[in-house]
Amino acid sequence: MSDRGRSKPALLAAALAALALVLAACTGPSAESATPPAGGGGGGGDTEFDPEAPLDFAVITHGTEGDAFWSVVKNGAEAAGRDLGVDVTYVSNGDPGAQAKLIDNAVAQGKTGLVVSMANPDALKASIEAAVDAGIPVITINSGTDRSEEFGAIAHVGQEEFIAGQAAGERFAQAGRKRMICVIHEAGNSGLADRCDGARDGFGDGEVTNLQVDIANPTDIEARIRGALRTNPDVDAVLTLNSQVADRAVTAAAGAGSDAEVATFDLNTDVVDAIRDGDIVFAVDQQQYQQGYLPIVMLKLYRENGNTLGGGQPVLTGPGFVDQSNADLVRPYTERGTR
User: Fold this and answer.
1) How far does the signal peptide extend, from start to end residue (predicted)?
2) How far is CA 282 from CA 107, 211, 216, 277, 311, in A?
3) Which end of the chain is least crowded, N or C, by CB within 10 Å?
């Protein structure tokens, strides 16, 4: 069954079961000489798996320098490395071709585990499969759920983007909203398209229009959203897919004289403050710290004890929601860079 065909309770159950396994494995005995199970990827390739190789992992994402979201992923991965005594290198590049080269470099450098986000899976396919064939276990995160197993990864950690978007659309529909703009800030990112498709599905009879902007040009983001709201004054909901875009959407709505409610995916301190002030109605939280932290735990367990997680299903970190009911609880964690 496809990810979109599964019910939300089933996905939640899978996530809870997976996290329970993480906790159980972390408290159990290690077996450094254990051989990972056959056919699980990352060792099922052309090169024999070496259980004695050092734990030297690379996290390679499609994030951009200074992006608030990916800095939290990085914090999670590096914290896991410190906690577990594992060498962790974090690198990122928003260009798919450049990201593929980073994966190739990690293989050439002899990294013994890879964590890769796949916003543009086709561009990374050959590089990930080469890593698997070199006997390196790969865990995908954040994007590319549907292609993870195909490429030979042992697991995927993240959020089901269609279902998260669906939940956001349902929230707006329940609030009586009828016309929504879904703001896509990164062209070619399949996960963002899935979010908007899900929002459209969850919005029911409401109308959803996608608006393409460029995350690298904040002034243009604000101008495009403001222009869309002025052109379509009946729009009463704006869904952004990035915490940094959310702030621009709030300013744009005010500049357009629009009463449209703004919601967003992902958190930072500014978003939480805007939620507390009533300028943003909610944020979809995929808890990206876990997308950095958990894969390092999983790779260590795989290399030392042959453990895998998920049973062929993604290990879910979201969606959760932050609104005025829990913003005060979450804010200290955004300040320290873990939410």
Assistant:
1) 1-24
2) 41, 20, 24, 11, 32
3) N
pLDDT tens for 106-154 read 999 999 999 999 999 999 999 999 999 999 999 999 999 999 999 999 9
Please return the burial class of 78, using the count of CB atoms within 10 Å of its CB with bins 0-12, 13-18 and 19+: middle
Reply yes or no: is the peptide bond before residue 314 cis, omega within 30 of 0: no
pLDDT digits (tens, 9 = 90+) for 296-309: 999 999 999 999 99
Q: Which CATH architecture has domain 3-159+287-318?
A: 3-Layer(aba) Sandwich (3.40)
Alpha-carbon distance of 127 to 186, in angstroms, equals 22
Q: Give the integer Cα–Cα distance in Å for 280 and 261.
A: 7
- CATH label, 161-285, candidates 2.40.110.10, 3.40.50.2300, 3.40.50.720, 2.60.120.620: 3.40.50.2300
Residue intervals of the chain classified under CATH 3.40.50.2300 are 3-159+287-318, 161-285
pTM: 0.80
One-letter-per-residue 3-state SS of 218-263: HHHHHHHHHHHHHHCCCCCEEEECCHHHHHHHHHHHHHCCCCCEEE
Inter-residue contact 260 to 24 (CB < 8 Å): no
Polymer length in residues for the chain: 339
* pLDDT band of 289, cuts 50, 70, 90: very high
CB 84 within 8 A of CB 115: no
